[in-house]
Amino acid sequence: MTAFAPVYALHVLAALVWVGGMFFAWMILRPAAVTALEAPARLKLWSEVFRRFFVWVWAAVVVLPVTGIGMLQLSFNGVAGAPRYVQVMMGLYVAMLALFLRVQALQLPELRRAIEASDWPAGGAVLGRIRRTVGSNLLLGLALVAIVAARPHW
Ligand code: HEM
To answer: Keyword Membrane, does the record have it (predicted)?
Structure first.
């Protein structure tokens, strides 16, 4: 086994955790929470979900570029030798990171403040904005994985 294999596996696992987590949150948990919970419980649930999930997203956010650049050093003659699909991957990574940081640094604190003040309408409005941001990030993540996975057949 070459050094490339474990680095590659870690890279794909990090992508799986981040994109798969967003898929589950958006497609499964969100509609289930709307059906089963009233606004106060729903907002508290999401605050707890984000707190736990974002620990893993932070790990993915670090692991992806480190392993990605590691693979470029090992097999592609460094970052300058990155093929077009890897350049696309790096660009989409930056966009995904920006959207994640927006939720983490701006929207999540707003959600927590609304919950502490028991201001459920304001909390619902922030949660709606978080939903849109995560939805965009999910689309970017799915597109990224599809583009990279399809590359041998272009
Ligand atoms: C700075 C950021 C990134 C760099 C430098 C990078 C680099 C790379 C490299 C060099 C490969 C191996 C390509 C090959 O073997 O031909 C790869 C594969 C892959 N990357 Fe990234 N990547 C980055 C970010 C991401 C992100 C954000 C995701 C998804 C969320 C992602 C998902 C994948 C997947 C799924 C593969 C495997 C594709 C396959 O073999 O079918 N990468 N990446």
So the answer is: yes
Domain boundaries, the chain: 4-153
Ligand 1: list residues with CB < 6 Å. 11-12, 15, 18-19, 64-65, 68-69, 71-72, 86, 89-90, 93, 96, 141, 144-145, 148-149
Look up residue 133 and give its two tokens.
Answer: 């941001």
In this predicted model, what pLDDT tens digit does every residue of 34-69 receive, in sequence order? 999 999 999 999 999 999 999 999 999 999 999 999
pLDDT band at 153 (very low <50, low <70, confident <90, very high): confident
Q: Whose CA is nearest to atom 41 of ligand 1?
A: 149
